[in-house]
Amino acid sequence: MGKKGISNKMEEGDNITPKGCFSLKTVFFRKDRMRYLKTKIQKIHIKKNMGWCDDSSSKYYNKLIRFPFNKSAEKLHQRNNLYDAIIVIDFNMKPVIKNKGSAIFIHIANKKYNTTKGCIAISKKDMRHLLRSLGKKNKITIF
């Protein structure tokens, strides 16, 4: 979970995981690291030029972007394995509220299971299991 815990009062960069019940959107994954990924949720291969905008002054705030990009954005194609698979949580998406928080994902945890910047992190093994068992209508409740 986020370094500063869970709350329903969030703002960009606060290191808080959002409280609530959320739909699960798209799964982004590294094809070179997660070859036989099975899920009923829409899958998209992560390419080197993909990112997620975290700049609240941008019209692309809390959305997928392509690099080069002239605003702040998090790279989805990373050297570490944290983003080998990402489940996008439907937080602050419809409508997008500027500075409320962005890039809230379920992703792979590091070996020490350190806290995140607001995401939920699980093991790669658990991610594979979760993705196999999820359907399009499943939700996540964070409390």
Please give the alpha-carbon distance between the first and last residues.
Answer: 11 Å
Counting DSSP H or I runs of 4 or more residues, the number of helices is: 1
Main pleated sheet: 6 strands, mixed
- The total domain count is 1
Shape: globular
Q: Quickly give the CATH architecture.
A: Beta Barrel
The poorly predicted ranges are none
Q: What is the strand content? A: 25-35%
- Structural class call reads mainly beta
Structural Rg = 14 Å
Number of strands: 11
Question: Averaged pLDDT, please?
Answer: 96
Topology:
Blueprint lengths: L5 E2 L9 E2 L1 E10 L13 E3 L4 E4 L10 E3 L6 E3 L9 E5 L15 E4 L11 E3 L1 H10 L5 E4 L1
Parallel strand pairs: 1-2, 3-4, 9-10
Antiparallel strand pairs: 3-8, 3-11, 5-6, 5-7, 8-9
Describe what this molecule looks like in 3D.
- Helices cover 7% and strands 30% of the residues.
- The strands form three sheets. Strands 3, 4, 8, 9, 10 and 11 form a six-stranded mixed sheet that branches. A three-stranded antiparallel sheet has the order 6-5-7, with no helix packed on it. Strands 1-2 form a two-stranded parallel sheet.
- The protein is mainly beta and 143 residues long.
- It has a single domain (6-45, 81-142), classed as L,D-transpeptidase catalytic domain-like, CATH 2.40.440.
- The chain is built from one helix and eleven strands, in the order ββββββββββαβ.
